[in-house]
# Entry
Amino acid sequence: MKIVTKQQHIKGVAKAWYNRYKLPTYYKSIQAPEWEEREGEEGRGEVYNKLKALENPTVEQIDEIIGDSRWTRLECSECRLDSPALVYLGGFHMCGACLRKMADEYDQHVLASEGGTV
# Structure
């Protein structure tokens, strides 16, 4: 289990961008480009350099550089809402509200199985 805040998440966006779009070095042997690119988009290497240059990135700065908010969202696996922090439980990412709901449901289930009430 790990808790990740929005600020922690956005500090890792440049590295995540690099890991997603930087082509492995073995492609260089076949004269491939350094970055995975798409026509009509700003060069991904240029985007990475702008992200990397941010000392204390904000959501707004990152969204402006990339052009949307997909990289700055902390989306709960349960309710799909953007959250200021998430609890990572294995492959699930849960916001506080959904985590509390899950704990309440757990308590109700355990108490019901023991013949008690909440």
